[in-house]
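Good day; I would like, with your permission, to put a structural problem before you. What I wish to show you is a protein chain and, alongside it, a tokenised description of its three-dimensional fold. I would ask you to consider whether the tokens describe a fold that such a sequence might reasonably adopt. You will find the record immediately after this paragraph:
***
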Amino acid sequence: MQMIVFRLGERIYGFSTDKVEEITTVLDSTIIPQSPDWTVGLVNLRGQVMTLIDLDILLNGSHSSEDDWYKNTIIIHTEENPIALKVGAVIGVSDIEEDQLQSVGEEESIISGYISAYGEIVSCIELEKIFKEKEEV
């Protein structure tokens, strides 16, 4: 499988490219009142409105007052509407074999396991769990 690898602050994360529509730069957002803290707001990309999610807050609970780490937006295709994910620098796309993934062992965790790529330990995100959490809210 192919995995996109990126930074969130000092940490390195990745997920399968199966649902990735595109990678774009920083997008301006409009705040949604009374939304979860990990929901940054709504963005408009070429006439398509979607929710912008701050993965750093969702995964780590980080509430940085500065967005200097925010470098890219990854657009993910879902069954309903696309979702925009706020990430740091995209390091690259890597081919990963399933047997390279070291499982976390926690079924409910958003992190499915760890791999070694680009000389770093990469935490692998389970996108379906993020989508499920988004639907519950």
Notes: The first strand starts at residue 2 and ends at 8. Residues 127-136 form the longest helix (10 residues).
